[in-house]
Write a structure and sequence with these properties.
binds nicotinamide-adenine-dinucleotide; 2 domains; alpha/beta; 30% helix
C-alpha cells in the first residue's frame, strides 16, 4: 500500500480529487483539513474508512508520527485572492513548508498553484515571469520555490479559475459558485469592477484529471486558453445583480494549455454549458 497524504479535501476542488483517489485500492490515505473554509460534509464519508483517516487540524500542526508519505496531494490553502493581510500569506507559507517535510525522499508531491503568480499579464505560458499583485499570488510563488528546494519529485499545476459542483459561492469568491449560490437563493449578487474582468475557466473534473494523470518537474497550466468577461457570464445565467465595488484585481488572464494538451489531457465541460445547466435547474 502506498501511504498518501491529501490536504484541503474538505474544500471544493480537493473533495473531487479525493473521490478519484479513494478508488485506488493500493492507497492508504490520510486526509488533513482545518475546516477554515472547507465543508465537513465533503469528507464525512471518509471518517474512519477502510483506507482513509480524517484529521481536523492545520497541516502545519499535523504530527507525522510514523513513516513519511509516498505521495502528497497538497491543495490546502487560504485561497482568497482579494485578501491583503499577512494571515493568509503566512498560513500558506507555513503549511507548504511543513508538507514538504512529510514526504519520503523518493516520494512525489503534487501541488495546486495558481495563475495568480502571474499577476496582470493578459496571456501567459508556463515560462511567463512571476509578477503577482496579491498576497495570495506571492504565497503561491513562495510555495513553488519551497517545493522545488525541498523535494526531489514534484508536479506543480497552476490552475486558472475553477468551476463545478460544490463550489462555495457564499463568500463572494469564485464567480461561477457565486452565480450558483445567488440563483439558488434567488438573491441579487454584486458584480465587481463593472463586470469587465476576463478570466479563463476550467471544469473541476478536468483539473482532477490533470492532477491524477500528469507528472513532470516543470509546471503545467490548467486552463482552456479562452476568456469570458464577468458580465457576459452573469447575464447568461439570468441571476439578479447590481454593481459592487471596484477591487484591485487582475484585469484579464488567459492561460496557454499547449503543454498540458501535449500529455493527452483534454478539457471537457465548458463554462457556458455549465451555466446553462445551472439556469435550467434554478
Ligand atoms: N478555486 C480556484 O479557482 C483556484 C484557482 C487556482 C488555484 N486554486 C488552489 O486550489 C486549491 C483548492 O482551492 P479551493 O477553491 O478548493 O479552495 P477551498 O477553500 O474550497 O479549499 C481549501 C481547503 O483547505 C483547507 N485549509 C486551508 N488552510 C489550511 C491549513 N493551513 N491546514 C489545513 N487545511 C487548510 C480549507 O479548510 C479548505 O477545505 C487551493 O490551493 C487554491 O489556492 C484554486
Amino acid at each position: 500500500m502506498k501511504k498518501v497524504l491529501v490536504t484541503g479535501a474538505a474544500g471544493f476542488i480537493c473533495s473531487h480529487l479525493l473521490e478519484e483517489l479513494v478508488k485506488r485500492n493500493d492507497y492508504r490515505i490520510d486526509i488533513v483539513d482545518d475546516l477554515s473554509t472547507g465543508n465537513k460534509e465533503n469528507v464525512r464519508k471518509y471518517f474512519g474508512g477502510e483506507n482513509t483517516r480524517f484529521y481536523q487540524c492545520k497541516i502545519q500542526d499535523f504530527p507525522v508520527l510514523t513513516d513519511k508519505y509516498d505521495i502528497i496531494y497538497h491543495l490546502a490553502a487560504k485561497a482568497n485572492t482579494r485578501a491583503t493581510g499577512l494571515v493568509e500569506f503566512e498560513d500558506n507559507i507555513m503549511a507548504t513548508e511543513a508538507v514538504t517535510k512529510m514526504l519520503k525522499p523518493n516520494g512525489h508531491i503534487i501541488f495546486s498553484s495558481s495563475c495568480a503568480v502571474y499577476g496582470n499579464q493578459a496571456i501567459v505560458i508556463e515560462e511567463s515571469p512571476y509578477q503577482p499583485i496579491s498576497t495570495y499570488g506571492y504565497s503561491k510563488w513562495m510555495n513553488e520555490l519551497t517545493i522545488k528546494a525541498n523535494c526531489k519529485n514534484y508536479t506543480i499545476f497552476r490552475f486558472s479559475n475553477v468551476f463545478g459542483e460544490r463550489q462555495d459561492g457564499s463568500n463572494e469568491m469564485g464567480l461561477i459558485g457565486v452565480i450558483d449560490y445567488h440563483l439558488k437563493q434567488n438573491r441579487e449578487m454584486k458584480v465587481f469592477n463593472k463586470g469587465k474582468n476576463e478570466r479563463d475557466y476550467i471544469y473541476v473534473k478536468d483539473v482532477v484529471k490533470a492532477l491524477t494523470t500528469v507528472r513532470g518537474n516543470s509546471p503545467y497550466q490548467i486552463g482552456r486558453f479562452k476568456t469570458y468577461e464577468t458580465l457576459t457570464l452573469v447575464n447568461l445565467s439570468g441571476v439578479k445583480w447590481s454593481y459592487g465595488a471596484d477591487n484591485s484585481e487582475v484585469d484579464t488572464i488567459k492561460l496557454s494549455n499547449t503543454k498540458l494538451l501535449a500529455t493527452g489531457w483534454k478539457p471537457t465541460l465548458n463554462v457556458v454549458d455549465y451555466i446553462r445547466g445551472l439556469n435550467e435547474k434554478a
